[in-house]
Amino acid sequence: MYIVHSTFIVPEHKSDEVISIYQTRSKMVDQYEGFRSFQLLQNEKKKGELTVQIEWETKEHYMKWVQSDAFKKVHEHEKNYPDQELAAIIPTVKKYEVVAT
């Protein structure tokens, strides 16, 4: 299994707005081959720290998603978000290979 974390910091007063966006997300990734699960995680002590966690069957499945037109479409939408403060946020991405369960 392959897990990708995209962590970003938003102003705490905007965290509910961002959570709402993810609660109504397009779910394009969910239909992609090798997709296993999606979660939006909120740091319990720092409410403005959010992490998108996506699990894939393999790294190869993840790479096919990243190279897809659907991936580009989803991320272009983020860049064009009306709230420019939120649109300008660049996440920290970490990738993990599951080596034991």
Automatic annotation (TrEMBL):
InterPro entries: ABM_dom, Dimeric_a/b-barrel, Heme-degrading_MO. The keyword Chloroplast does not apply. Residues 2-90 form the ABM domain. Signal peptide: none annotated. Keywords: Monooxygenase, Oxidoreductase. GO terms for molecular function: monooxygenase activity. SUPFAM superfamilies: Dimeric alpha+beta barrel. This is Antibiotic biosynthesis monooxygenase. It comes from Metabacillus mangrovi.
